Amino acid sequence: MKGKKVISKKKVVAKVKKVVGNVKKVVKKKVSRQYTNKVLVKVLKVLGCTAAELGRALPVNASYLSTWLYDKGSVPLRHAVRIEELTQGKIKAKAVSPEAHKAEAKKIKALAKASKE
Fold this sequence. Notes:
This protein is mostly helical. Helices cover about 70% and strands about 0% of the residues. The chain has a domain of about 80 residues: 434 Repressor (Amino-terminal Domain), CATH 1.10.260. The radius of gyration is 25 Å and the shape is elongated.
């Protein structure tokens, strides 16, 4: 075997493990790109549309919608109300936006105050 380089079994196994490890990292990255905001995913299912179609219906820039879908930002109250209208009340604004909870709490306090007077 002159001139041929013999690779040991250990080196071959190590190279295979390294390649498999790199493939697993790539697969994990692709899986982690799924939408994390489960409420907005439910909105998409109820409406039977894509994220781009929802963005056009609101109307919202694609980058804003992306931040909401990946739970990096909260949905503003006005858009949460519009989503409730689009889903015909199947998904409430309170479920979509934390601002809706605050707005409802203020409304209840104002009604309670008005009823006392």
